[in-house]
Amino acid sequence: MSNFNIALNFEDGVTRFIECKAGEKVLDAAFRAKINLPMDCSDGVCGTCKCRAESGSYDLGDDYIEDALTEDEKDGGLVLTCQMIPQSDCVIAVPASSSVCKTGQSKLAATVAKIEQHNDAAVVLDLEVDAAAPVFLPGQYVNIDVPGSGQHRSYSFSSAPGEAKISFLIKKIPGGVMSTWLEVAEPGTKLDLTGPLGSFYLRDVQRPLLFLAGGTGLAPFLSMLEVLARTNSQQKVHLIYGVTRDLDLVLVEAIEAYQTKLPNFSFATVVADAESSHSRKGWVTQHMPAGSLNDGDVDVYLCGPPPMVDAVRKYFDDNGVKPNSFHYEKFTPNAAPKA
Question: Domain with 221 in it: what CATH number?
Fold first, then answer.
């Protein structure tokens, strides 16, 4: 029997991965990894270890009392980690901070492999991880220390989990700490990273998906698309990629490639500049096909600057759109993403 990777997502945005052996309970695996998940009795009686399983399959057995976990709670995805035995990789939301659970953020050491400029809009930064390939959830981000500055910047992975080479799509900001460093950075430079972080990530795919990307908010969707392709997803996926100027449209060829990798994938690009010659001008909300919303039976993921996120939320409210789930992340230059 196989061991399973369990992602523990803490309420402060920190994610820690633990390995759960075949037949092992999550609470025991966490303790073995020196992570103190909330607990009291560890016998399925008190309910203190109650968490939410966001994906994966597992067995809870019947050695717990209903006062600790009711049938309604169980049906809603709540679990007792002292009883939960994974049967696949799982994602668990822990209703406590990482510091309370006596754990912290993971550290990564990496080396610059390649820096690719895309007009004056963005940079693709490829890094080689010095140790084991990092594990993260597609959509999450890390903090990258900017050499010589004493500061860090937050960027979403644009590559898929589990690879020794990791990639990031970084917006160029004149005078920005990271942008300025990237102008002189050389392959072979060592970088320190902290993460993974964030609650914006791809959940279990059980219905059509609508991805809405603004500018370099495209990055997490490239990671998600690669994971969907590798798992041979058959669900419909529609991506709308909105930018301000024509020059801001980057990595379009990479997006196009997923039309071959994913049988039910489609996408559209939108440029806000009224002077653009692009075939679709305006905002993403003006180019959202009704079919992509699937009468509400759709999971929507949105990553972009705050005005875009606010505009999409208002559009949904004004038009009575109520998707099955709506996950979004706002980002601003020089600031960590907010989920």
Answer: 3.40.50.80
Alpha helices in the chain (DSSP H): 26-32, 71-75, 177-182, 219-230, 252-261, 290-293, 306-318
Rounded to whole angstroms, the Cα distance separating 100 from 116 reads 41
Record the pTM.
0.89
Query: How many other C-beta atoms are found inside a 10 Å radius of the C-beta of residue 190?
Result: 12
DSSP 72: H
Is there a single domain that holds both residue 165 and residue 214? no
Q: Provide the residue count of the chain.
A: 339
Please report, as a single letter, which amino acid is at residue 238.
Answer: H
For the beta carbon of residue 322, count every other beta carbon within 10 angstroms.
11
DSSP class of residue 281 equals B
Give per-residue pLDDT as tens, 252-303: 999 999 999 999 999 999 999 999 999 999 999 999 998 999 999 999 999 9
Domain housing 159: 107-197
List, for the chain, all residue ranges whose pLDDT scores fall below the cut of 50.
Answer: 335-336, 338-339
Total domains in the fold of the chain = 3
